[in-house]
Design a protein that fits this description.
By secondary structure, this protein is mainly beta. It has two helices and 16 strands. The chain has one domain: Beta Barrel (Outer membrane phospholipase (ompla), Chain C), CATH 2.40.230. The longest helix has 22 residues.
């Protein structure tokens, strides 16, 4: 535990130094009037009830929640975007599954991108992406007609942190594309049981893995039509050892459709591929695999903060 705390402390100090030198704007640049802050809270509910139903299926109840916080700063030649997003949900299945309560969505994502303009479109940039989950996760399978669960994840096990320095081409805040030849990615499995038994994404006994490579980050955000918004984020990472021959992919895609100020529907799609991570596939085999999830939701939404109108820069 002391070693884990030491590693976390060392990384935080390292990141703080990088941020202090390359990311945080000088005090003269800070102006609260230039901040655009927004908070989006959502909750959705779905329920299926069956009794003596001859067509198959089982009863279920699913509840989900989302928190999406965005803080954008713009002044002069300084652009700074921060985004914290987390989703959490669970479902209770019917008697056929023992009325079990299972987590069906859980992730925490934080991104920050600081850009100092060189001209109208190009700028020098520093980026940090961090991703993990909040609570324990399990894989479920049936053995001898009995359902079992296998502990596979928890907070910081696994977790991914990527820091990158490079150039960004953007039309703020609609889109930005960053190419970073200098990047470092940390993969964490900071749970003793998962790490020692090799039950997560790293080999047995390994808790932290460091890769150095080049990254590409692309973000697109804007209204497709009135009341329909598209948000897409793509991150590509290639280790210097296998530059461009092996690429890790993280892609998040979302379409939001407002029904009224309190109701909204959305479609989200997430895709992950890590060429050096061991994943238990649906067929029981292990190795690198394309991981994806999608959700279609209708639920309650509450928003705080006002968004600036997009500038035609």
């Amino acid at each position: 535990m002391v070693r884990i705390l030491f590693i976390i402390g060392f990384l935080l100090l390292t990141y703080t130094r990088v941020v202090a030198q390359a990311v945080i704007p000088p005090q003269d640049d800070v102006d609260t009037d230039k901040w655009d802050v927004g908070l989006r809270l959502g909750a959705d509910l779905s329920q299926v009830g069956l009794q003596n139903w001859s067509y198959g299926g089982q009863s279920s109840l699913a509840i989900g929640s989302v928190l999406d916080f965005v803080a954008r700063y713009e002044k002069g030649n300084v652009l700074w975007r921060n985004n914290l997003k987390t989703e959490y949900g669970f479902q209770r299945l019917g008697k056929a599954s023992g009325n079990s309560l299972r987590k069906n969505i859980d992730y925490l994502l934080f991104t920050t991108a600081y850009v100092r303009k060189l001209n109208k479109r190009w700028g020098a940039s520093a980026l940090w992406n961090f991703e993990t989950q909040l609570t324990r996760g399990y894989n479920y399978e049936k053995v001898n007609d009995r359902e079992t669960k296998k502990f596979v994840s928890t907070f910081m096990a696994p977790a991914t942190s990527t820091v990158a320095l490079g150039l960004t081409y953007s039309k703020w805040p609609i889109y930005s594309f960053s190419l970073s030849p200098i990047g470092v990615r940390h993969t964490f499995v900071l749970n003793n049981f998962l790490a020692e038994n090799g039950l997560s994404v790293l080999p047995p006994g390994e808790k932290v893995k460091v890769d150095y490579g080049a990254t590409f980050n692309g973000t697109v955000e804007g209204d497709v039509i009135e009341l329909v918004k598209l948000i897409s984020r793509l991150t590509l990472f290639s280790d210097y050892t296998f530059i461009f021959s092996k690429v890790d992919v993280e892609w998040d895609f979302e379409i939001r459709m407002a029904i009224n100020p309190w109701l909204a529907s959305s479609f989200t799609f997430q895709l992950r591929y890590y060429n050096d991570r061991t994943t238990t596939r649906d067929d029981g085999t292990e190795g690198p695999a394309v991981q994806w999830s999608n959700k279609i939701k209708v639920g309650f939404v509450y928003q705080l903060g006002s968004k600036r109108e997009k500038k035609k820069t």
